[in-house]
Design brief:
89 residues; mainly alpha; 2 helices; 96% helix
């Protein structure tokens, strides 16, 4: 083998490595974009859940208690009893 063969092989290897590096960069960019979109979606979902818990759940609870005060009182006593028993142990 002469130097031209080694030079040609070296150039081929360098070209392949450069192509591989470019591919890795594109994959990294796509993964980063996907992770960013997922993060935004999770943030929106948490915001929606927080809003529901803060506003709608409280309103629903008040409406149910006003409609069924005796059942709500019995339920609160039962939950208090169970929590008390669990904490005593």
């Amino acid at each position: 083998m002469d130097n031209t063969t080694f030079g040609s092989t070296s150039d081929t290897i360098n070209d392949k490595l450069h192509g591989l590096s470019d591919t890795a960069s594109r994959v990294t960019e796509k993964v980063s974009d996907t992770a960013s979109r997922v993060s935004e979606k999770v943030s929106e979902t948490i915001d929606d859940a927080t809003s529901y818990l803060r506003d709608d759940l409280w309103d629903d609870t008040q409406r149910i208690v006003k409609a069924n005060p005796v059942a709500a009182l019995v339920g609160a006593v039962a939950v208090g009893f169970i929590v008390g028993r669990l904490l005593r142990r």
